[in-house]
Amino acid sequence: MRVKKRDINITPKKGVYLLPNTLTLCGMFAGFYAILSAINGNFLHAAWAIILANIFDGLDGWIARLTNTSTRFGIELDSLSDLVAFGIAPSIMMYKWALMPFGRVGWAAAFLFVACGALRLARFNVQTGAPGSKAFKGMPIPGAATILASIIIFYYEFKTGIPGRNIFFLIITILLSLLMVSTLRYHGLKEIDFKERKPFWALIVFVIALFVLFVHPSTAIFIFAMTYLLWGIIENVVLLIKRGRARHEIEAGGYTAEQK
Length: 260
Known about the structure:
Order of helices and strands: HHHHEHHEHH
Strand content: under 5%
CATH class of the domain at 17-196: Mainly Alpha
Number of helices: 8
Largest sheet: 2 strands, antiparallel
Number of strands: 2
Helix content: over 70%
Oligomer: single chain
Radius of gyration: 22 Å
């Protein structure tokens, strides 16, 4: 008796890859620790825990690609970890640190960050595997969380206590929330192919960045984070201007052809 293909029950292999998923759980634990630290008023520890979670988030993806152990389970676990470490943790941290004096507007801004982060992750999961540019559509949630964490780390280099009612922290939280769900192009380390040869100056820039990071990590992280934010905005403005000019030239060319 011939068995049809549709009658065969294909069961997926059981088990998970330990190394990348363990790194993902380490990132989730760092995010959980950041939440506890923020609730207890230790905002500097919370900020550094988010930075640590970002390192684990980069490592698990890199290890999974390097060892060819990327699975759908790993992708879903990574998204849940990202929501904890880069969505819930920074929103609670910012609310307890600087948004609470704004009352209802403050907790609304904190929730906006979580909601936009969740939407950003859902959109990314749906688009995973789709052909196209390697650049991210919208700011990645780890980048947005790192910017908030870097602000707190940089703040405590010069001041103590909490900042109180400061409109800048409210605006930056809302801005980062909107950038996550925007269609603006942002870059990530996955665009870099480490197997290809790079110009010598790239190695010099990397060494200088490491030097600055080791000499004064708090200032370096703040500078890198704000550069990433501003560079993305400037790049997208330039792209928008170029597209507008190209569209204008095409329309002008078509109008000239019709006249002839």
